[in-house]
């Protein structure tokens, strides 16, 4: 029936049949036409899909050209390892086990140096541990002739179960997940092939050496050709997120208090800035995996081997904590834009609210700068002081807005009607103010975590000219030093 | 010098040497003692660490016994596959390639059915595609004698680079990451060993069949022995999170308005309930991976093959959106507990605030129940209505609290001093009220996403007795049906 409706507007051929009624004449060519159209449509859709996919791939490449370089590095590593096969002298040395070198390269080569190192070390350690254990179990099984298959089977069952279970324990999962898998794999292979292959030790030694060749190839290429450091990435991610947080805080409050007189293209840019806090809320998983890999990395750039990467996670958590509040603020501003507060109240509070938000975002920007440069900031204490001052100012402003609330028994408010404002009209403003105060206290949390980071990572002091106050404050430490030198002289 | 200070309180033996000064006599036994103590301390620490590790492992096992079952399943699968080695007839059939069956089991066997299926399908498809492509390239290379190594090397370089790059494209990464890796691995191995091994097709066929054996073993064991379904897990996670969200909303508001007269052990439990929203905020990554695996699963339990798993992610996002606001509410309540609002204002608002929060959490609980049972709820519209009514009531209550705000020029507030309350004292209450209104609007967002889910997943209508109103409302649809049957009869 539906079909009839669809073709309502079309012409059709009818033929009169013997009983008097007419029948629709459906030409065969129509079927052919339909199939043809279907095929064309299908191919067009396919081309469109492929085109979209390619466009997406192109965007990925443009967005981060290092990914393209990584791919070429993988290709290079595989080609170099293949040489072991193509060049006869090398082939005769390593033998058919060269397969393991290729497998190692494919499985171990990761995007960042830290991830590659982690996998290499895990693979090496897992293979070595399981290999020696497997040889041991084989030796034991070999000395008890008839029980050999039972001992081997039972050892595979129990060790595989135990190693699989260890992968569920958070501390193992975080660092040694891959190693545990390789342990199971190697142990099963060794204990099973030990039953067939007699030259087990030779096999194990060859396999280890080919894995070492593959792994060292990966490490050399990943560290020498345009290295991508997980630690560096984490550092950049956290500082960029701090800037984004500052920008969205600024933008969010400015949007509420200022009249929007800016042109529309500028507005689009600012709304993009405003949404920056969402990046902060969503980057937990990325931060964790980067920190996990960064731990394995050697010293690089400005980062030492034992750089406190875990502290970056705490900074990230503090920022997210702050981001939740900005999210709520954003929501409250959007929903309350209908019920505007009276202008005179807005005027009274807007200046001090804007000041608090700009001081808070200043603190965040200063912290971002401090983390970026890895130098102690001389301005940060001052910025924090200003922020706290602004909090007090806002609280004072709220206090100085005396509110006449009439408790139930008293009903003489009628005479004050001309200036009475229901609480609901000031509610949005008060909420914004409260949330700003809360945000300021959470910004202090971010400060505390960055301060801890600066202590753990030994951020350098800035040695250009300091303001006078700081010199006065630092004098006692000079005195202390003087006393210490005197002491040292006496002791000598 | 520091060393001397440390031992300041201790006795020491001194001996007078030739130049008249005295020298400390350090008995050798002391060193031995120290080393002994150090060793004992080291071992105690080691034992303590191992003990802690075992305790953690025990907690993991107790927390989710299915994990232990999974480990036994892995052991079982490996033991069964090892049989191919131990039993001579089977071994002669499959040959040394049985190694690939073991490798497949170790690599492919995952915790959930969906993850295992995804890896099996990826591994099979990747191996088949790369294998046939590798054989093709080998054929071409074989026909151009002197260029053979160049063609093979170049093909490995380019295909490996391209496949590695594809792993960065989000849609590929999400579903086919493992397949792309296997593709690179197989292609490299085939094109490289093709240069040495002549019976390439035989090898490829054998390898595919052993992989098929390993994979089918995994699939059979994972689906038949206590299967753990990713979809089921996702369903439970989302509904449990919804309940947690409702509980923390309730607890948070009750804590603020009620006097805490409950005993301390009950308080601890309630504070644990209160922190439930944090689970919601942190479960994004888990939800995404579960949804990713659930897509691969066949119909199981109450879930059909094409169950709208992606919609669960949207429900999760809506819940997180709600959770951000609860986080902010929690923060505001904690920070503002010092500046208490005057009692009469609190009394005026507390009842309506509590009502709104309990209606909001009722809606959440009803939605959780609806998702849990996968049946349409008859009460949900009523609950939403009540919540919206409570929002209006709260807004009315705020309106009916007339606030006397004095604009700057007017300064006659002095006479009203006895009842004047500065805005700052009501700020926390107003903030709580605003945030509750915002939360209610976000709960509606959760409702919208669950409603969409119920539509997509064809939740059944409840067929037990409905309230009268619903019957009246549903009458037109009965009429419609009647009309349709009449129509159908006419048409026949």
From TrEMBL, chains A, B:
Record key words, sorted: Ion channel, Ion transport, Membrane, Transmembrane, Transmembrane helix, Transport
Highest taxon, organism lineage: Eukaryota
Membrane topology per record: Multi-pass membrane protein
Pfam family, any one: ALMT
Chief location: membrane
InterPro entries: ALMT
GO biological process: malate transport; monoatomic ion transmembrane transport
Compartment(s): Membrane
Family of this protein: Belongs to the aromatic acid exporter (TC 2.A.85) family.
Protein name: Aluminum-activated malate transporter 10
The species this protein was found in: Kingdonia uniflora
């Amino acid at each position: 029936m539906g079909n009839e409706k669809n073709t309502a507007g079309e012409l059709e051929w009818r033929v009169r049949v013997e009983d008097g009624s007419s029948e629709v004449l459906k030409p065969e060519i129509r079927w052919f036409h339909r199939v043809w159209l279907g095929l064309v449509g299908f191919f067009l859709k396919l081309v469109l899909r492929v085109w979209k996919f390619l466009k997406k791939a192109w965007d990925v490449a443009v967005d981060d050209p290092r990914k393209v370089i990584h791919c070429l590095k993988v290709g290079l590593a595989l080609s170099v390892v293949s040489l072991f096969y193509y060049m006869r002298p090398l082939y005769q040395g390593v033998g058919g086990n060269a397969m393991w070198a290729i497998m190692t390269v494919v499985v171990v080569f990761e995007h960042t140096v830290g991830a590659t190192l982690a996998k290499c070390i895990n693979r090496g350690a897992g293979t070595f541990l399981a290999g020696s254990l497997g040889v041991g179990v084989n030796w034991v099984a070999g000395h008890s002739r008839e029980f050999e298959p039972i001992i081997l089977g039972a050892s595979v069952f129990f060790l595989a179960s135990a190693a699989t279970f260890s992968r569920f324990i958070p501390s193992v999962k975080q660092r040694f997940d891959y190693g545990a898998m390789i342990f199971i794999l190697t142990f099963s292979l060794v204990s099973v092939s030990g039953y067939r292959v007699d030259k087990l030790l030779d096999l194990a030694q060859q396999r280890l050496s080919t894995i070492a060749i593959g792994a060292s190839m990966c490490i050399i290429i990943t560290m020498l050709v345009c290295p991508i450091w997980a630690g560096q990435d984490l550092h950049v991610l956290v500082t960029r997120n701090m800037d984004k947080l500052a920008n969205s805080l600024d933008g969010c409050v400015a949007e509420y208090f200022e009249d929007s007189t800016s042109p529309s293209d500028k507005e689009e840019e600012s709304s993009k800035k405003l949404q920056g806090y969402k990046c902060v809320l969503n980057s937990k998983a990325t931060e964790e995996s980067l920190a996990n890999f960064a731990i394995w990395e050697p010293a690089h750039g400005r980062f030492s081997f034992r750089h406190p990467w875990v502290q970056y996670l705490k900074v990230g958590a503090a920022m997210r904590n702050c981001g939740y509040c900005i999210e709520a603020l954003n929501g409250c501003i959007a929903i309350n834009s209908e019920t505007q507060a009276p202008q005179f109240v807005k005027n009274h509070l807007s200046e001090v609210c804007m000041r608090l938000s700009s001081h808070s975002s200043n603190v965040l920007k200063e912290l971002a700068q401090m983390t970026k440069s890895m130098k102690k900031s001389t301005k940060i204490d001052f910025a924090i002081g200003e922020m706290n001052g602004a909090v007090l100012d806002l609280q004072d402003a709220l206090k100085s807005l005396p509110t006449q609330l009439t408790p139930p028994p008293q009903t003489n408010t009628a005479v004050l009607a001309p200036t009475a404002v229901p609480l609901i009209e000031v509610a949005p403003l008060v909420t914004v103010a409260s949330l700003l105060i809360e945000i300021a206290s959470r910004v202090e949390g971010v400060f505390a975590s960055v301060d801890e980071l600066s202590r753990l990572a030994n951020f350098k002091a800035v040695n250009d000219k300091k303001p006078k106050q700081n010199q006065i404050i630092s004098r006692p430490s000079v005195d202390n030093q003087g006393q210490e030198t005197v002491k040292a002289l006496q002791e000598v």
